[in-house]
């Protein structure tokens, strides 16, 4: 069974600092990984997708994938209070399997 | 444009009612999905339509009946639901359910309350 694991938090980070979110997955055959942000009462919003080992940067966000360790991470630089949300790690190509999500709180 | 629309935004129904949820996308995507999300839980996959054909049914009870009338539309027909079916129902679409084309974009969801 495919599983995606995340620490549910809450993870509290001071404004302006780097927030580091981590995720592990069980299916070695997984090729596609996604980070979604979800505000309370809203639907998931795509932040990043990553398919290859290494880093992928988009603005203040950097996704990292290590297939040997079955590990995906998301770094948020210069964290802002508006980044406070639940971050969902997901994997899959014909339907996503989500982790439980990490609740991130950015403290002003 | 990565917009997926869903109607209605909110729905309250009794256990004997029949209702339908609607999802629409005009991005030319050929894969569409239904997810169910309970409070403080991650979304759970219900159904996958690929090129208008049902390709995945995650053992969903028959009181939920999906339909894909065309490549832009996805419906979820509801009948004889239980209070525990109350949840946020999310629709998503992607270019195709294939590696490299499977980035999913979610609609705003329909919040369903079953009384």
Strand composition percent of chain B: over 45%
Give the DSSP E fraction of chain A (strand runs of 2 or more residues). Answer: over 45%
How confident is the prediction overall: mean pLDDT of chain B?
A: 94
Q: What sort of overall outline of chain A do the alpha carbons produce when their principal axes are compared?
A: globular
Oligomeric nature of the chains: heterodimer
What does it look like?
The complex is a heterodimer of chains A (108) and B (115). Chain A is mostly beta strands and 108 residues long. Helix content of chain A is 0%, strand content 54%. In chain A, the strands form 2 sheets. In chain A, strands 2, 4, 5, 9, 10 and 11 form a 6-stranded mixed beta sheet that branches. Chain A has a 5-stranded antiparallel beta sheet with strand order 1-3-8-7-6, with no helix packed on it. In chain A, a hairpin with a 6-residue loop joins strand 4 (33-38) and strand 5. Chain B is an all-beta fold and 115 residues long. Chain B contains no helices and 11 strands. In chain B, strands 2, 4, 5, 6, 9, 10 and 11 form a 7-stranded mixed beta sheet that branches. The N and C termini of chain B lie far apart (37 Å).
């Amino acid at each position: 069974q495919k599983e995606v694991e995340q620490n549910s938090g809450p993870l509290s980070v001071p404004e302006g600092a780097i927030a580091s979110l981590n995720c592990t997955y069980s299916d070695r055959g997984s090729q596609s990984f996604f980070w979604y942000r979800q505000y309370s009462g809203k639907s998931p919003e795509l932040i990043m997708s990553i398919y290859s080992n290494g880093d992928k940067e988009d603005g203040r966000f950097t996704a990292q994938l290590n297939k040997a360790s079955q590990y995906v991470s998301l770094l948020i630089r210069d964290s802002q209070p508006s980044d406070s949300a639940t971050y969902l790690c997901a994997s899959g190509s014909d339907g996503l399997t989500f982790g439980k999500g990490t609740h991130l709180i950015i403290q002003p | 444009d990565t917009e997926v629309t869903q109607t209605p935004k909110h729905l309250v129904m009794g256990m004997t009612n029949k209702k339908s949820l609607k999802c629409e996308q005009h991005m030319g995507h050929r894969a569409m999905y239904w997810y169910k999300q309970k409070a403080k839980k991650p979304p759970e996959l219900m159904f996958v339509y690929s090129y208008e054909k049902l390709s995945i049914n995650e053992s969903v009870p028959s009181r939920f009946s999906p339909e894909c009338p065309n490549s832009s539309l996805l419906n979820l027909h509801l009948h004889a639901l239980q209070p525990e079916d109350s949840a946020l129902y999310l629709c998503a679409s992607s270019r195709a359910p294939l590696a490299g084309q499977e980035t999913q974009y979610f609609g705003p969801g329909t919040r369903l309350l079953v009384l």
